[in-house]
Amino acid sequence: MNESSPIRVSLIVPCCNEARVLEQFIERVGAVVDGLPGYAFEFVFIDDGSTDDTWAKLCRAAEDRSAFLLVRLSRNFGHQRALVAGLDFCTGDQGIILDADLQDPPELIPEILSRLGEGYDVVHTVRRDRRVDTPFKRFSARLMYGFLQRWVLPELPRNAGLYKGFSRRALEALRQYRERVRFLRGLFATLGFRQTRVTYVRESRQGGRSKYGLRSMVRLARDAVVSNSVLPLRLGLYLGLLILCAWPLLAGVGLARWWMGALGTPALWVLAALVWGFAGLILVMLGFIGEYLKCIVLEVKQRPLYIVEEVRNITD
Q1: Residue 257's domain spans which residues?
Q2: Are residues 308 and 246 part of one domain?
Q3: Do residues 144 and 238 both lie within one domain?
Q4: Are residues 235 and 275 in the same domain?
Q5: What are φ and ψ of residue 39, in 5° steps?
Q6: What is the DSSP code string of 233-253?
Q7: pTM reported for the whole predicted model
Q8: pLDDT given for residue 8 in this prediction
Q9: Are residues 203 and 237 in the same domain?
Q10: CB–CB of 57/25 below 8 Å?
């Protein structure tokens, strides 16, 4: 690339019913990127099945600013797959993922680009604190990150969301992952290459509501586990071996107490407890096996990760 040529940067922004905050978002991001000479920015907006006038506002905004790539999906495919669409369509030498709700401050973009310019391939942004989250959200996030780091993804930075910067070679590596059940934060963390972190204070939402409620958080944690680890299946094996090893001891104690006449009617309760415990263990492990079988079925079907309804590429 010619030394005088600007570095092309793709800003990837998934949107779902963000009409209330889009104008403010574009204004703030525009003020940041306009103050960065030496870079040519491409705005890649993915409308993930919005039911408000998000798409109309994006089209109007594209009339006032060049280098807009607007991708409209045929329905809501979810945050993770909308980001996959953005990663597939972007063309920059570097890329940055950020949400449109302004919780991730666009003013951090210069620092992310500075780190990429130092030769890093992935820049994670790590929240310094989670004061803007509810107590339950803080507790569940601490629990999830602690579990994932300890048992599933030790490379995963704690409190790092999907506000990230990445190089072209990191993007090309990431595009090779085409699984249907995915946890993008984990994929970025396990890419390898040179990675670094920058910290920031997350702001309150400027509009709309969070797309990650309790059900979505549980689903995300489940996908993170089953797409990156076989720990639940091994856990069943370990528990099964422990119970099998303890069974002769329990049987011996029961026989001894029966022989001494100390085991009467309570034996029925002991038997019921054992049956109940084994039934619960079997059902739990069948549930884990079902989750993995579901992943296998989704991968075997090879359905598209997303379906595009419309694309508008405004470059002038």
Answers
A1: 231-301
A2: no
A3: no
A4: yes
A5: -125, 145
A6: HHHHHHHHHHHHHHHHHHHHH
A7: 0.69
A8: 92
A9: no
A10: no
